[in-house]
Every structure is written in structure tokens, then in C-alpha cells.
Amino acid sequence: MRTARLRTVHPVLWAGWTALAAGAVLCVLGWYGVSGERFAERQLPYLASCTVPGAALIVAGAVLLTHGRGALAAARVEELYGLLVAAEPADEGPGQQASAALAVSADRLMVPGGTLFHRADCPLVAGKAEAVPVDAKLVRSGELGPCPICEPAAADD
Description:
Blueprint: H1 4-7, H2 11-35, H3 40-85, E1 108-110, E2 116-119, E3 132-133, H4 136-141, E4 145-146
Parallel strand pairs: 2-4
Antiparallel strand pairs: 1-2, 1-3
């Protein structure tokens, strides 16, 4: 159930692959030109006009690919977050808003070794056998933060 934005290839990725290919071609041309010249002063024009810009294009392509993949990953995370939090109950129509919060229990749980505390009916800990009641000392010391999904209120502390 992906959105149309995720199905299309990100234009930054195309630009990255194009820059990488052009840089590789320029580096090969520069190497070929340098290899045919015996004297260093005749090799410099090939270095200046092909090899150095080719290397710069390779670096730029790598940066563009990294940025494009990061943007694509961020879009996927947002889509998954939206599916997790904004899921409509089956009995409501498409035009109605959910009247209750996702998690409303006052009991707080945590997973041993975790960094967040949750309401007992939070979808991230509901049904997990390893979830244990929250130790108030961990919350007061700041070792545990509130879950961004169920948002246990500060008054629950």
C-alpha cells in the first residue's frame, strides 16, 4: 500500500546516477589522454579538463545518491508512522474522525532495556509479554521518555 510518490524514482537519484556515469567517463578519457603523452607538461591539459572534473562529478553523484536515498527513507518512515497512528477503526466511515485517542489507559509500561514508557494500551507494547510496569525512579531521572505514539501525560508521573 505505497503512495504514488514512493513508486516513482526520486529525481535526485537519477541525477546522482547520471553524475556518477559522466564522472566515470571523464576519468577514463583523462586517463586515456594522460597515458598517451610522455611528458608531464602535455599530460596537464588532460588532468585539468577531464580527470579533475570527472572526480568532482563522482563525488557530487555520491552525495546526490545519499541525499536521494535519505529522502526516500524519510518518506517511507512518514508513511509507516501515518499508518500506525492515523488508522481508522473499521466501523467508522471515511469522513468521520476518531473520537477517542489511540491509547487512553493510565497504567504505564516499559520494555526492559527500552528508552520509552507507554500507556498499557499503546500498540507498541500491547500484548507483549516482556512489558513490565514502569519504575518511577527511571522516569524521574530522565532515563525513560514518553512514547510519541500514545503520549502518556506528564500528570501520569
